[in-house]
Amino acid sequence: MLYQFWIAYLTITRREILRFSRIWVQTIIPPVVMVALYFVIFGNLIGQRIGEMDGMTYIDFIMPGLVMMSIITNSYTNVVSSFYGAKYSRHIEEMQIAPVPDLVILLGFVSGGMVRGICVGFAVTLVSMLFTEFRIYSPFVALLVALLTSCLFALAGLINAIFANSFDDITIVPTFVLTPLTYLGGIFYSIKLLPDFWQQVSLGNPILYMVNSFRYGFRGSSDIDLFTALLVIVFFIALLFTACLVLLSRGTGIRQ
Amino acid sequence: MLALEISDLYKTYSSGLQALKGINLQVEEGDFFALLGPNGAGKSTCIGIISGLVNKTGGYVKIFGHSIDDEFIIAKSLLGSVPQEFNFNTFEPVEEIIINQAGFYGVPARLARVVTAHYLKQLGLWQHRRSQARRLSGGMKRRLMIARALIHKPRLLILDEPTAGVDIELRRTMWEFLEQINEQGTTIILTTHYLEEAERMCRNIAIIDEGDIILDSSMPHLLKQMNCETFVLYLRAELQQAPVLPSFENVVRLDPHGIEVEVPDTLSINDLIGELEALGIVVERMRNKVNRLEEVFVKMTSKPVTESLG
Which of A55, B17, B27, B300 has its CA 20 to 30 A from that of A244? Predict the structure, then answer.
């Protein structure tokens, strides 16, 4: 039976990967172009006037954050659009009718989201090499944080998709929640620059922990203790994973 | 052995609508079973619960003795379902849709390709295997859903209006295909609005209405219970109004040369002809009211099965 589930998991994951790779012009290229523009404008043009931040050039400072932003956005978007699309066109029923446990459905969609997030993150990293020297302090930490973060936002995307009743609903959270939290998550500045009060407020933003731990992986410096950051990420993964499983087993949004 | 056992099945939607009011139903292995009912009667809800698409409020469902609650992996492995509405990703190629479905049942891709090729050829979709599903015609999409439902060789196949919107010729070829599947041992449950379809293929029948099973019977037994049959008569002379026949209540004038008469099973055709002759009305031809046009159409346009599927 485990073999049967393994085949089902591979099928879902493969289908998810094929889905976004077939439309790579819409899924891979735009975030790469967007981040390239960030490098040009914030890194080169404005960054040269800003000078150093946290002991490094501004472009070096923002590079890990921009990669992380791509991973977050794409992991989330992939799952929310794919799962909601499956609900909308009802092909989610293909899996519901089949003997596929909720856990396998969950893992399949999340894996698809993670693969897209990591693919785009990798592509953005390659583009960054056009603008700044590639240096990585701890590949293990960088990869670990990238994987955990993409997993977390793939789970978040799934929850959004489960509750979504229209295409508007799948854009509300990314536009009004995810983007502001990402921009305020320390991609473009160190929270040490903020007044004490806003530093404390920033600590309530989970994306801050991901950006900083990822920056630690690349540059060896972070506003947040690495262990604390990893703990926060794992905590949120556990929370969202449980929520997803409960929602899927109840059939919320997918079974009448 | 029972292929399907439904006991005390209830479903109340969040809107308060009670779609199923404690229905009981048993379908024997190997049967070709018709589940009929008007729109909104509860057929699709019932099928949705069996397939795992709708949460039940109460009762139990067993597929070949396996509960859909406690043994859902086994129960679902034994079930194939063709829903009323298209529910595949229309942007995926035909072949991929079926291979993916096989994967959901744990069939490895290499084996899935072989079985997929078999059903695509049998259902006349082989040359469209690389086309996106959205490019298929309505009839092809229906056949795609049947191929997809058969990919894991289910022992129980549920078809929810599989021939809806399909032309008559294709409908006939689908009937033949389903009869073959049934002869090979697959139990089939069919819902349809085409009653001649159920009459032709099904051995047993249940009628559901307003969430209750109001009839559960064998098809021959049900047909025997039909207490009248309607005939259309073509008359030599013109009639200005429907004739009054002492023994026949429902006589309708269709046109100057045609009438429709309901003949109860207590009376014979001879009785009808006799009463018409007594009024000086000569009958030139007559036919049973049901399906004649369909028969004519099929005779005029029919092709060999493989050709029409291709």
Answer: B17
